[in-house]
Amino acid sequence: MKINIIYIFAVITLIASTSCQPKEKVRDGKLKVVTTTGMIYDAVINIAGKQVEAKALMGPGVDPHLYKATQGDLKKLQNADLIFYNGLHLEGKMGEVFEKLGRIKPVKAISSDIPDSLFRTSELYPGTFDPHIWFDVSLWKEAVRNVHRNLVLSDEANKLIYDKNAQRFLQSLDSLHLEVIRSISSIPENQRMLITAHDAFGYFGDAYRIEVTGLQGISTLSEPGLKDVADLVGLITTNKIKAVFIETSVSEKAINAVVEGCRKKGHDVKIGGSLYSDAMGPFEKPEGTYIGMVHANVQTIVNALK
Questions:
Q1: Which CATH superfamily is domain 182-305 in?
Q2: How many Cα neighbours within 13 Å face the side chain of 188?
Q3: End-to-end CA distance of the chain
Q4: Which of 124, 250, 261, 300 is the most buried (most CB within 10 A)?
């Protein structure tokens, strides 16, 4: 994967300037936390609240697979006391930055303490795991626990607050998990098929017993070919699937080609709605929280397929 010269220079500049700083610096004010995705930011806010100064690099509609840090992002990372990222190659273009920064400050992959046995493997990318762990709420709880542990390690003075908030948030996630099970089970079994632009919902399918098919692989770096479109058209028409779904962070061009292909074969499949996959909604809206995002996705899926 090629990285342009300007980006390499920015990374080198960041590392050079940061490596000159003492490793154990005295923190001025609140703990400064930077996250990559909104889902991780949401976990930090639910656990730490106003005890930290938290920022997310990737906002609504941003595809982390393709994201490249800006100059402003590199400055935020340089000034951070603690950095969280997803790992499992989700933030593919930022791997070098995290590796370098991890030598001089806490940089934590929220997936790092989860047993490999709980991850989905990829048929297209042997030796790699599916990074979309937030779509199984029970698995995301393990990532939240990792966030909690590292917040306490970096800010022990607020341990009691973090412990209390983490316990409350984890209980909310337990309730959410059960709600998703009930909602998806209301879809007739012969219509329980979730078809999306890329294969982000595998964990969701495994956890909530709905068959999942993505036009692209687990990374949007791959491009669907004509055969991929034709195969999906055949699957939809054979099973008389009512709806397919677009994603807020992925181009809908390929899914539209599938819809048109189905129409030419005499099956009118509709766009069932837009799902939040690799990014949440705007932070000021309910869909800009992890729980709100999951609720919105499930409601959209059930309304289209039931």
A1: Nitrogenase molybdenum iron protein domain (3.40.50.1980)
A2: 9
A3: 42
A4: 250
Distance CA 95, CA 69 (A): 11
Q: What is the mean pLDDT of each run of 10 residues along the chain (306 residues)?
A: 49 53 61 98 98 97 91 96 96 90 97 96 81 97 98 98 98 98 96 89 97 73 75 92 90 89 95 95 95 98 96
Q: Rg of the chain over CA atoms, in angstroms? A: 20
Rounded to whole angstroms, what are the CA distances from 33 to 45, 51, 109, 134?
10, 10, 13, 20
What is the per-residue pLDDT for 150? Answer: 98
Encoded tokens for 291: 């729980």
- Encoded tokens for 204: 């969701």
Same CATH topology for 5-176 and 182-305: the answer is yes
CATH T-level assignment (fold) for domain 5-176: Rossmann fold (3.40.50)
Residues 6 or more apart from 244 whose CB is under 8 A from it?
195, 196, 236, 255, 258, 259, 269, 270, 271, 272
How far from chain centre, in Å, is Cα 96?
19
- Both tokens of 189, joined, read 């079994």
Query: What is the CB-side half-sphere exposure of residue 263 using CA atoms within 13 A?
Result: 9
The pair of three-digit structure tokens given for residue 62, joined into one six-digit string: 């941003």
Taking the CA of residue 48 as centre, how many other CA atoms within 13 Å lie in the half-sphere pointing to its CB? 30
Please write down the HEC assignment for all residues of 89-120. Answer: CCCHHHHHHHHHHCCCCCEEECCCCCCHHHCC
Q: How far is CA 74 from CA 30, 174, 283, in A?
A: 20, 36, 22
Best CA proximity match to 275, nearest among 295, 291, 259, 261: 295
Give the Cα separation of 292 and 269 in Å (integer). 27
User: What are the residue boundaries of the structural domains of the chain, listed by start?
Assistant: 5-176, 182-305
